[in-house]
Structures are given as structure tokens and as C-alpha cells.
From TrEMBL:
This is dolichol kinase. Belongs to the polyprenol kinase family. The lineage of its organism: Eukaryota, Metazoa, Chordata, Craniata, Vertebrata. GO terms for cellular component: endoplasmic reticulum membrane. It comes from the Eukaryota. Its main location: endoplasmic reticulum. Its EC number is 2.7.1.108.
Length: 522
């Protein structure tokens, strides 16, 4: 039997799926319902495999598989994007939304088939259910997608299969099956989009900041794969290896990534970036302010490590201490969302690339900073950092940035969506920056009534909902572009459901919660 937290988590996800289905009510939303039903049953098989140690790869311990909540994110994002762009009359992005939804469903089905295939004895009922759901989805895709779109979906699936085999082998215990689906599925889609756009470059077509995101993400991932293979054959901790690392980073950056970006944006990437960053006085002020906040975050890291005495080497930072970084991130993103979202978009991409590059330096022990980073960051580890990589800070950045990156700008003629959709770029700020932070702080200090089967408290969840409602009111006051059109009941329902999901999920909430809040608000 599934335990109570998993059942409640699944129930919350089902409610969100049904909310979207009730609003959209087309063949794609019916497919989402079918996918959710089969993912619920297959999730039980994955959980059993993890408990018995029968999974093919080593997944993160102390968490359930998370297959259901992860399986629904990409399909639901595609469906709500399709609806928004359809109402705006943007056919290209309406079709793009359909491709996103179809890709998410097919990748989730593939992971389900893997679980069913390696379960012994073969679960007959689950096989039948997976077959029925798969038939419905494939039949709908057959009558909805053009041949080129079917090829695109299959390309993403192929990339996902190979990427999963490589990264899950190289990075044991870093992901649950659901997190692997979400992260590797997203990377696979980004890589396919970059290849597709690189082969079909039309001068003046496309936004340079979108190309910048695609090239930066794919570039740092390929850089990591290259050095992972390389350091199998040589010791990464020596000065010679470290010098080779820095030299090859420069060669790959200047010789591959920069020309790739030049081909896409048709101008010098460095000159374009500098011109973009310092284009207006507002941007200069924001960059100076963000630099101060980055220095403050570094100061917290150094101060907390200085407090760690030689007698307490096993001392770990408290929950409240780790939430300092959430407050700093909120202080970073809110001014960017209000005054210059394009600058925030590009700055978040740069920050992600820097975070991943620093993690490479820490992981490979690259001199002169690798060992220092290992020592400094070890203080902030929690149970979710059980693998060789430290990913929680990267997930925090992703959770705050994804609503900004995934915001359908082309389907919002005035730069913002109507109604509750106007809050979409703030999804990360509300769900993680405000809700998750307040729930953790108040729950750990004043919470007494625990939700059944979890360590989270009722007081923490209620305080999180209340805090997010106050945050929405403040956004209405300070951001004149937000007009909710009296959609307050839907906003309250969205915030409440996501806060309840935070209380029951064992997945990386920094990544999952903003995406579900974005789906609900869109």
C-alpha cells in the first residue's frame, strides 16, 4: 500500500489536473487525465523497486519516486501554453504548446514502461492501464501532430533516453525518478530546440535572449559531460589537470559556444551582452544592487563557516540559516520583475551558468578553489544532497527563474497576461521565496500540529498561504502591469493547493512548486 503522504500528494496533483481539465476541456486535457491515472499506479511500482533496490540506477534515498507529480508538469505546461496562445491568436506558439504537451506525455510514458518492465512478477493490471493510457495519448498525437512535429517529439525522446543512461550512471543518488524525468526531460527539450533552431537560422527571426538561454544551458551541460569523461582517465585534483580544465573551458567557450551563439543572433555575443546589460540607467542601478546582494550572500557563507569551530565539524546550518538565501533571492527577483524583466531573464541565465561552473570546480576539486568550495558548502548540505553533486542552490535558482523564462511573451501583447496569469512571472517568488520560506521558518519555530505522516506543520502551511496572499497584495500595489480582474478566488485556490503540496511532497520543492503554481495561474 502507498503511504498516506504519497496518497495526499497524489490527490493534490489530481485536483490540479482536474482544475486544468475543467477549464480547457479538450482531447489534450483528457490525455492528461489518462496519464495521471496510469502514473499513479506506476508510481507504486517505482516506490516498490526503490525500496527493494531493484531499480536499474541508484536514485536519491529518503524520498518516494515522485513519478506522478513530475509526469504532469511538462504536459500541463504545454496545455496551458496552448490555451493562452490560442486565445491570443498566435498559431505558431499554439502548435508549440501542443508539441510540449505531447513530448511530456511520451517521456512520462517511457519512464512508466521502464518501471513496469523491470518489476517482477509483471504487474498485469498496471500493464493494461499503461497500455490503455498510452493508446489514448498516441491516438491523439496521431490526429493532432504534423509529421515534422512527430519527428520533433521522437527526437526529444531519443535524447532523453541517451541522456538518462549517461547522467544517471555518472551521478548516482542525485535524483529521484520523478526529478530525473523533470530535469533530464527539460534538458532534452532545450537541446533539441537548440539543434532545430541552429539548423533553421533566419536572420532577424527570434529573440536573442531566448537563444542566449538555449546556448548557455546546453553549453554548460556539454562542458560537464566532456570533463566527466576526461577525468575518468586522469586525476582531476592535480595542478596540471586544473590548468587543463581552465584552458579547455576557455577553448570550448571561445571556440564552440561563442561562435554557436554568433550564428544564432547574427552579432558578436560579447558586444551584444555588454550593450544589453548597460543599455539604460535602470539596468546599471539593478546590476549594482544585485552585486551588493551577491556579496551579502557570500558574506553569510563565510560568516557561518567562521562560526563553525574545530570541535563541531559535523555542525550543519539550521533551516532558518538556509532560508536567509531565500530572502536574498526574493530581494533580487522582485525589483527585476517590476522594473526590467528582460534584464532579469539574462542575469538569471548568467547566474545559472556561473553556479553550474562553480559546481564543476567543487566536484572535480579543480585548483585553486575546488577544495575551498567543498569546505564552505558542506555546512549547508541537507538530506537531499545525498549524491556527488550539490544541487539545492541550483534548484532554488531554477525555481525562481523558470516562471520568468517560460513566460509566453509572444502570447502576451502588452507584456503581461490577463487575470491571474499576470502573476505567472512571480510564481517562483510566491511559491518558493515567500511560501516555502515562511512555512519552514514558522513551522520549525512555532508549529505544533503536524500534517499526518510528515514533519511539516499545519501552522507553517497556513502561515505560508497567508504570507503569499499578502505578497500578492503588495505586488498589486507596486507593479502597475498586474491586473487580476477579480480572479481572487482562483489565486487563493492555487496558492492553497501548492502550499499543501509543499507540506506533503518529498521531491525538490524548489523546483516543483513554482511550476505547479505557474500552471494554475496560467
Amino acid at each position: 500500500m502507498l503511504n498516506k503522504p504519497v496518497l495526499v500528494e497524489s490527490l493534490i496533483v489530481f485536483v490540479i489536473v482536474l482544475f486544468v481539465h475543467a477549464v480547457v476541456w479538450d482531447r489534450y486535457s483528457w490525455c492528461a487525465v489518462a496519464l495521471a491515472v496510469q502514473a499513479f499506479y506506476v508510481q507504486f511500482k517505482w516506490d516498490r523497486l526503490l525500496q527493494l533496490g531493484g531499480a536499474v540506477f541508484q536514485f536519491r534515498a529518503a524520498a518516494n519516486s515522485g513519478l506522478l507529480p513530475a509526469s504532469m508538469v511538462i504536459p500541463l505546461l504545454g496545455i496551458v501554453m496552448k490555451e493562452r496562445c490560442k486565445s491570443a491568436g498566435i498559431v505558431y506558439f499554439e502548435r508549440f504548446g501542443i508539441v510540449v504537451a505531447s513530448t511530456g506525455m511520451l517521456v512520462a510514458l517511457f519512464l512508466s514502461v521502464i518501471a513496469v518492465g523491470i518489476t517482477k512478477p509483471v504487474p498485469t493490471n498496471t500493464c493494461i492501464l499503461t497500455g490503455v493510457a498510452g493508446s489514448i495519448i498516441i491516438y491523439t498525437m496521431k490526429h493532432s501532430l504534423a509529421v515534422s512535429e512527430v519527428i520533433e517529439v521522437l527526437e526529444v525522446l531519443l535524447i532523453f533516453v541517451y541522456l538518462s543512461m549517461i547522467l544517471l550512471y555518472l551521478l548516482p543518488r542525485c535524483f529521484t525518478p520523478g526529478e530525473a524525468l523533470l530535469v533530464l526531460g527539460g534538458i532534452s527539450f532545450v537541446l533539441n530546440q537548440l539543434i532545430k533552431r541552429s539548423l533553421n537560422v533566419i536572420e532577424g527571426r527570434g529573440d536573442p535572449i531566448d537563444f542566449f538561454l538555449l546556448v548557455a544551458v546546453v553549453g554548460v551541460i556539454l562542458l560537464g559531460l566532456f570533463f566527466t569523461v576526461l577525468f575518468i582517465f586522469m586525476d582531476s585534483g592535480t595542478w596540471i589537470s586544473s590548468m587543463f580544465f581552465h584552458m579547455m573551458t576557455a577553448v570550448l567557450g571561445l571556440g564552440v559556444i561563442m561562435p554557436w551563439l554568433y550564428r544564432l543572433i547574427q552579432r558578436n555575443p560579447l558586444f551584444w551582452l555588454l550593450q544589453f546589460l548597460f543599455q539604460t540607467q535602470t539596468r546599471v542601478y539593478l546590476l549594482a544592487y544585485w552585486t551588493f546582494l551577491a556579496a551579502s550572500a557570500c558574506g553569510i557563507v563565510f560568516y557561518q563557516n567562521a562560526k563553525r569551530s574545530s570541535e563541531s565539524k559535523k555542525h550543519q546550518a539550521s533551516t532558518i540559516t538556509r532560508k536567509y538565501f531565500h530572502f536574498i533571492v526574493v530581494a533580487t527577483y522582485v525589483p527585476g520583475l517590476i522594473y526590467d524583466r528582460q534584464l532579469l531573464y539574462v542575469a538569471a541565465v548568467l547566474c545559472l551558468a556561473v553556479f553550474i561552473f562553480l559546481e564543476y570546480i567543487r566536484y572535480f576539486r579543480i585548483k585553486p578553489f575546488g577544495q575551498t568550495l567543498r569546505h564552505l558548502l558542506s555546512l549547508f548540505l541537507d538530506e537531499r544532497d545525498s549524491g556527488p553533486l550539490i544541487l539545492t542552490h541550483i534548484y532554488l535558482l531554477l525555481g525562481m527563474s523558470l516562471p520568468v523564462w517560460l513566460f509566453p511573451r509572444s502570447c502576451a501583447p502588452k507584456g503581461t497576461l490577463s487575470g491571474a496569469g499576470a502573476l505567472v512571472p512571480y510564481s517562483g517568488v510566491l511559491a518558493v521565496g515567500v511560501g516555502d520560506t515562511i512555512a519552514s521558518v514558522f513551522g520549525s519555530t512555532m508549529g505544533e500540529i503536524k500534517w499526518p505522516g510528515t514533519k511539516k506543520t499545519f501552522e507553517g502551511t497556513m502561515t505560508a498561504v497567508f504570507a503569499q496572499i499578502i505578497a500578492v497584495a503588495l505586488i498589486l500595489i507596486f507593479d502597475s502591469s498586474v491586473n487580476l480582474n477579480s480572479n481572487y478566488a482562483w489565486i487563493l485556490a492555487s496558492v492553497s493547493l501548492v502550499s499543501l503540496l509543499e507540506a506533503y511532497t518529498t521531491q525538490i520543492d524548489n523546483l516543483l512548486l513554482p511550476l505547479y503554481l505557474q500552471i494554475m495561474l496560467m
